[in-house]
Q: What sequence folds into this?
């Protein structure tokens, strides 16, 4: 490109934009920068055509706050305010609301197919071919896998370099400006200089130390409902150069059958959120511990914050099992059972308590208290939101229990950026030369209600913005 | 944690029809036309050519639309 300032370092692997991570955010940033004429190098730790990352595993629904990303921007802003309880950064919500449909249009124009897979807003923009509706992990040749291979081919077709089998160890800084990164390949470390570095290596969900620091005291007792590639390197490197870190206590995930910890038949689907938001959810002492009415993502976070995240159990009766138990995608009834899971059943609560290893007296008291609270005879001891997920009393037919765990898909907090994807320091001023996009960033979603915006729309939109920011800044400098 | 991965089916007939379906539709449509020409050359009434052409056109249309539907399915739903 003729109208961008040349980068005269002399080294052959230097570039205008160095992108860390080749998931959706990284490939989008890389392609956008390359098509605008910049010299781009993407560093990816994984190897092969099907290198793993969370975008590879995705079911493929592009949405914002579980609804249509093509809604009017004002409506999207309100939605994000609602799901984050007003704690998200409004300027990031604005940037997402105003650019999401443009980003999806851009994605389609770059060869990624999308279809509608249902009448509601959530299902208006799904990758094609969509994820297969089966329990267990089914990602090959569909959805995110096809999207990433399509984008990878597009990127290489533009002359972009995808350097696989390479890790980034630290950012290079000169006079407060990021000027590249140290990368390590085959045991050899070297510096790559770049005008802009884009951090897009995903969240820190697969890093036990960071999970322990931010999310849960027992990360080894959380289900890795992800590709186990998000190790938080971008977050760690950005923090080391003074970036502000926000909202790191929340993650996106689902309530899962506990046996999924060791058995691949039970993750990423079926999830048991629809039971958790309706029935009685208790810890190992038969006590409620969270506001189940705030939804499955919030419940999953609450389970992760328990002293023992593997102690949570859902208690229900026949009415709940045959009602909410059949709700949503691949519901527990019958898909959990079909996959080989067990519904623990007893004719009375004392027998049920014995089967799940709880004190019968404590379980009886908790169920009686729950039924009083649901009927309005007593206030909820742990606050309970009753809409949109109504609590169900327990008492019809047999009693059932499902032991559950917290499935972590991606962390929702991270590096604070502005609306141009520029990484901000502790005083919320941009760190020159450093951009970030996707799950490594924070400020948009999460917070006290663990409000979920949507990982794909965030990665795509801010990846696109990052590529454009690099171009605009370099053109301005020319 | 272990994972169990799903091996997708391959759908060879659909792949063949997507690749060669338009040509097959044309071939199928030409068969009644060719048959009617042969019958007329053997002394049957000339109206058979019109009938053969009409049946051929219908066959081509039906089979061509079927291939188009298969292509939509292949583009949007089939593993790639």
A:
């Amino acid at each position: 490109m003729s109208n961008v300032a040349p980068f005269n370092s002399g080294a052959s692997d230097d570039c205008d934009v160095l992108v860390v991570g080749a998931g959706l955010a990284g490939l989008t940033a890389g392609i956008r920068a390359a098509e605008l004429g910049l010299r781009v190098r993407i560093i990816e730790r994984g190897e092969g055509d099907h290198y793993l990352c969370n975008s590879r595993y995705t079911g493929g629904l592009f949405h914002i706050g579980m609804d249509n990303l093509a809604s009017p921007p004002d409506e999207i802003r309100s939605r994000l305010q609602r799901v984050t309880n007003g704690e998200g950064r409004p300027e990031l919500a604005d940037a997402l609301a105003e650019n999401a449909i443009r980003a999806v249009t851009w994605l389609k124009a770059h060869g990624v197919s999308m279809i509608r897979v249902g009448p509601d807003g959530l299902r208006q923009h799904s990758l094609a071919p969509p994820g297969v509706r089966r329990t267990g992990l089914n990602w090959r040749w569909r959805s995110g896998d096809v999207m990433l291979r399509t984008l990878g081919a597009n990127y290489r077709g533009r002359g972009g370099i995808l350097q696989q089998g390479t890790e980034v160890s630290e950012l290079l800084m000169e006079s407060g400006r990021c000027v590249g990164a140290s990368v390590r390949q085959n045991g050899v470390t070297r510096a790559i200089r770049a005008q802009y570095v884009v951090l897009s290596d995903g969240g820190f969900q697969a890093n036990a130390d960071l999970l322990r620091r931010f999310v849960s005291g027992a990360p080894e007792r959380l289900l890795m409902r992800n590709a186990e590639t998000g190790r938080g390197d971008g977050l760690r490197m950005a923090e080391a150069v003074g970036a502000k870190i926000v909202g790191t206590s929340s993650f996106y995930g689902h309530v899962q059958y506990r046996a999924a910890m060791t058995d691949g038949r039970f993750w990423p689907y079926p999830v048991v959120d629809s039971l958790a938001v309706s029935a009685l959810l208790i810890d190992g002492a038969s006590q409620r511990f969270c506001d189940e009415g705030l939804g499955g993502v919030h419940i999953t976070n609450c389970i992760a914050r328990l002293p023992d995240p593997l102690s949570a159990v859902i208690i229900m009766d026949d009415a709940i099992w045959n009602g909410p138990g059949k709700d949503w995608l691949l519901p527990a009834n019958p898909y959990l059972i079909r996959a080989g899971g067990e519904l623990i059943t007893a004719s009375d609560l004392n027998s049920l308590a014995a089967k799940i290893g709880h004190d019968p007296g404590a379980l009886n008291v908790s169920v009686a208290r729950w039924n009083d609270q649901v009927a309005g005879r007593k206030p909820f001891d742990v606050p309970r939101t009753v809409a949109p997920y109504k609590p169900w009393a327990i008492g019809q037919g047999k009693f059932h229990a499902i032991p559950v765990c917290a499935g972590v898909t991606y962390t929702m907090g991270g590096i604070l950026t502005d609306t141009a994807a520029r990484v901000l320091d502790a005083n919320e001023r941009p760190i020159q030369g450093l951009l970030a996009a996707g799950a490594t960033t924070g400020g948009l979603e999460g917070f006290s209600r663990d409000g979920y915006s949507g990982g794909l729309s965030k990665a795509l939109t801010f990846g696109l913005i990052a590529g454009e920011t690099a171009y605009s800044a370099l053109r301005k400098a020319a | 944690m272990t994972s169990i991965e799903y091996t997708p089916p391959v759908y060879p007939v659909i792949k063949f029809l997507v690749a060669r379906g338009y040509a097959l539709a044309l071939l199928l449509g030409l068969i009644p036309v060719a048959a009617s020409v042969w019958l007329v050359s053997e002394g049957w009434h000339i109206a058979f050519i019109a009938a053969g052409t009409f049946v051929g056109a219908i066959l081509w249309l039906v089979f061509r639309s079927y291939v188009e539907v298969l292509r939509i399915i292949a583009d949007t739903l089939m593993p790639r």
The two ends of chain B are 27 Å apart (CA to CA). The helical segments of chain B are 12-41, 47-76. Chain B has a mean pLDDT of 92.
